[in-house]
Amino acid sequence: MIKFDGIAAFVATAEAGSISAASRRLGLAKSVVSERLAELERILGTKLIQRTTRKLSLTENGQTFLPRAQRILREADEAAAELAARSGKLAGPLRLSAPVSFGILHLAPALTKFIQEHPQIEVSVELDDRFVDAAAGGFDAVLRHGAIGDSRLIARRLATSRRLLVASPAYLEREGHPASIDELQHHCGILYSMREGDWRFSTEHGWQVVRPKAALRANNGLVMREAAMAGLGITLLPTFFIHEAVKSGVLVPIDVGARAEGAELFITYPRDHGASAKIRALADSLQRSFGNPPYWDRLAS
Length: 301
Description:
The protein has helices spanning 4-16, 19-26, 30-44, 60-86, 100-117, 169-175, 181-184, 221-229, 239-248, 277-290, 295-300; strands spanning 49-51, 56-58, 92-98, 121-127, 141-145, 153-161, 163-167, 188-192, 199-203, 206-210, 213-218, 234-238, 252-253, 259-260, 263-270. The chain is α/β, with parallel strands linked by helices. The strands form 4 sheets. It has a 5-stranded mixed sheet with strand order 4-3-5-15-6. It has a 5-stranded mixed sheet with strand order 11-8-12-7-13.
């Protein structure tokens, strides 16, 4: 008979990429994880993992078995969570991924409230600005900015954010205040490097894209904010990055007569197992923490 702990050891090893990393995730000795993997392979009568001195990889049978094994673990965890929810308590692991800057600025305090509300939920969060595949990355849920174009995922909107053009008072005194979209073309921009045509404005003729000369390209909003505060140029950022700097006057909003495209925050999870009670509770808690409209938009006004 297949043992549940063997399936857990296999999934953790496949997702983490090594037995050592899996042992840390599971809180077990490396030898215990290896023994459970060996026992699972013996019961199934096939090799699931190809081990060499330099790397670990899944065999063809391991690749076939992995999504089913992940589903078994999810369904068992969700079943336990549903039973706990019936008794008024949510419990068990909840593994999340979120963008680095948003995680530091806003998710961390909101998660603290959630954990205080549900102390038996074991939250694990990994911050990463790269695209994280919620359907295949072993996460229960992923927080993402922007539209979700993946049919394998379900997305629930948590909050919105205005995006403002801002610059330091020193930059604007030196280079002048652009008064129109066309004048932006002649200024230095601090641009987000992961998306082309990021400066989009709604006009009476539709969306207009501005591509100013780049003083800096970065894939992190905090880096962009710091560069703008240092006077390197104009940047366009969601208010959840700049609300305090705008309120204090360190950054000054720029009105060019058109509204910039907004930003949205979603929580996403794989379609094949839906939203567990824990994910629903997390989403509800985060929405309460952020508010509607969110506090960063209110403070930036």
